[in-house]
Write a structure and sequence with these properties.
heterodimer; A: two-stranded antiparallel sheet; 68% helix; B: 253 residues; 11 strands
Chain lengths: 393, 253
């Protein structure tokens, strides 16, 4: 990696945005992607993915709750962050993100989950006693009407919310892309493609995450994996990946061909400081290899066991690749000087406020929240006491 | 007697309750710069800055004066103004050799170079852009334009999110390690509001740096801009920079 090379402006001796700001688009992307997978079943009538519908929603919620934490940890004055809501500056992309986030969390995700689970919540409320009864009564918001008519109304409302939710999910993550894409001072970020590149990579990462969680949970519960379901998810993952990769290559080819004044700095950076994380990890290991694996499944008939293994490996590589992509955008965009005359390095510390340790903790936290959510609101149909039922194929 | 004691207690309590916010308010009153310059009418000024590259000798007095005047941290990477020395080889004009040891505060060591290599100093500071990217991106409006064309930061409001540092194309902002908020050149607002010039202009021995008021028809800046070919930094970014450089080389970024 090396230290400073050439000339950098004095204020570029340290990177302004750390690994925590890498987590922020990574986590928001997982949220948007998981939600879009959930809406496949509900709005686009892809019944095969139904077994993952609720799991995808809970995953989105678990990660969305964690999404603002890396930002809070990064701020010099987190206690002032409420000012973004109280005295927002409407011209600022970052200020408006707060409202998009709240809208998405409260109006879309929480409401959709509540409507979908309302029947289960009321049933559990009626069947349980003691503290559990109180908790589920609170979750039901005191409403225990689950007759045919009200459930139909729930379903219709849920569908409307999902339809509102899709553009909201697009907005949520497209907005994250815009925060970077609109910085004209930084040629590595400044491109109108950024929101859409972020969006498709979000879909890719969210779909891969739900696929992995679904398979892992099935294994934990010793329940069989619904193969038509994972096959369908893998197919959508493949399609989304092709679009995402094409967009990224379009961006790259456009930069190389247009060759403006920043290209020399950026090109040199990709050949040296970003070689491992950009070319090796993001493009080769994290994109080309999983795309090839998913393509193989599309053209060759493989046994269930092999397909499951391929999905597990491809899904994991995908998440690594998308994380690398966020890293290369956020960290990569700060490794060259805005003078285009020099380069700096990122020194990732360990047990500091913005170090590796809190970053790892913030990546584990959503899984803890998800475990609690799954315990509270089981995403599989609970017939009687048995949770071993597999969702209907 | 009883009545007056009650009145006394009520009055005293009221006084006690009111004196707390009053004391807090007095802090603001005592601190307020506006009262220190009661005659300053912001709307009747429009500040701009001129730099004559050929006059700058790289002595670093401006950097030192700025740090002292504005309590800028002593670290060698926190500057409200700094000086860069360019060395441009005609055989390789795309890759000038640039240095700014300690922001140029201690001057520059002599370098032995070939006679063909062009060297010059470029003082840098906030460009107080009319369409500032930093003002645009601040999520809470802590960075703002004053009516006299100065970009200022409200330290009581800044979140320390660093978005403005990313958005500034000129590298003019840094995070103050003591306050965890952003800091930058204020054009010595506390001085110019009293009719003084900036600290850096005050000490410049060659008058390479001059503050000017574009709304004052008698200000020499008008003659300077009329008689010289001037350029702003990175004009392609259309930030509306108000720092005009005379003799700026195309190699400067």
């Amino acid at each position: 990696m090396g230290g400073v090379e050439g000339f950098i402006y004095p204020n570029e001796f340290e990177l302004q945005w750390s690994v925590l700001i890498v987590l922020y688009p990574f986590i928001t992307g997982l949220v948007a992607g998981a939600f879009i997978l959930a809406s496949l079943e509900r709005v686009f009538n892809v019944p095969e993915v139904k077994p993952t519908y609720r799991l995808a929603l809970l995953t989105a919620l678990a990660f969305l709750l964690v999404a603002p934490l890396p930002l809070q940890l990064h701020l010099g004055h987190p206690e002032r962050s409420l000012e973004m809501y109280l005295t927002p500056q409407p011209r600022s992309a970052m200020a408006m993100f707060g409202f998009v986030y709240l809208w998405y969390l409260m109006v879309v995700l929480v409401l959709e989950i509540w409507l979908d689970y309302r029947r289960d919540i009321v049933v559990t409320w009626r069947e349980s006693r003691g503290l559990k009864r109180v908790v589920y009564a609170a979750l039901a918001l005191g409403s225990d009407n689950i007759d045919e008519r009200s459930l139909r109304l729930d379903d219709r409302l849920g569908r409307i919310i999902t339809i509102i939710g899709i553009p909201s999910a697009f907005l949520l993550h497209g907005y994250v892309g815009f925060i970077f894409g609109s910085v004209k001072a930084n040629p590595w970020w400044s491109t109108p493609l950024m929101p859409i590149v972020f969006l498709f990579s979000a879909m890719v990462s969210g779909i891969a995450l739900v696929l992995l969680i679904y398979m892992a949970l099935a294994r934990l519960r010793r329940a069989p994996i619904d193969m038509p379901c994972v096959d369908t998810i893998a197919r959508y993952l493949f399609y989304a990946f092709l679009v995402a990769f094409s967009l990224e290559m379009l961006d790259l080819i456009h930069r190389l061909y247009e060759a403006d004044e920043s290209l020399k700095a950026l090109d040199f950076m990709v050949r040296t400081r970003l070689w491992t994380s950009h070319v090796v990890i993001q493009i080769v290991i994290g994109t080309v290899v999983p795309i090839a694996m998913l393509a193989l499944v599309q053209v060759v008939r493989l046994a269930d066991r092999w397909r499951r293994r391929i999905y597990a490996v491809a899904g994991t590589l995908t998440l690594v690749g998308i994380f690398a992509m966020r890293w290369n955008v956020v960290i990569g965009g700060q490794l060259f000087s805005k003078s285009f005359l020099g380069y700096t390095a990122y020194k990732l510390s360990f047990a500091t406020r913005e170090g590796l340790l809190p970053a790892i903790a913030l990546l584990i936290l959503p899984f803890v929240i998800l475990a609690a959510l799954v315990w509270l609101l089981p995403p599989w149909p609970a017939r009687g006491e048995s949770r071993d039922d597999v969702a209907a194929p | 007697m009883d009545q007056s004691r009650r009145a006394f207690l009520a009055g005293g309590t009221r006084l006690l309750v009111l004196s707390v916010p009053a004391a807090a308010a007095w802090d603001y009153v005592a601190r307020g710069e506006a009262s220190a310059a009661p005659d300053y009418q912001a709307a009747s000024h429009w500040w701009a800055f001129t730099v004559d590259i050929d006059r700058c000798i790289g002595c670093g007095k401006c950097v030192r004066a700025c740090k002292a005047e504005n309590d800028v941290p002593a670290e060698p990477h926190t500057f409200r103004t700094w000086i860069e020395r360019y060395a441009v080889d005609p055989l390789d004009p795309e890759h000038p050799r640039v240095e700014s040891p300690n922001g140029g505060a201690d001057g520059f060591a002599d370098v032995a170079g070939s006679a063909d290599v062009k060297t010059f100093f470029v003082p840098k500071l906030c460009n107080h852009c009319v369409d500032s990217p930093c003002v645009q991106v601040c999520p809470v409006g802590a960075t703002f334009d004053s009516p006299d064309g100065v970009v200022l930061v409200d330290q009581q409001r800044c979140l320390g999110c660093r978005y403005c540092v990313q958005a500034c194309p000129y590298g003019c902002r840094y995070i103050d390690p003591r306050t965890h908020t952003v800091d930058k050149c204020t054009l010595c607002y506390h001085r110019i509001a009293r009719g003084l010039t900036t600290a850096c202009c005050e000490v410049c021995p060659t008058a390479a740096r001059v503050l000017g008021d574009l709304k004052d028809p008698k200000d020499p800046i008008h003659a300077f801009l009329r008689e010289n070919r001037v350029l702003v930094l990175k004009p392609n970014l259309a930030t509306g920079s108000k720092n005009y450089y005379k003799g700026l080389d195309g190699a400067v970024r």
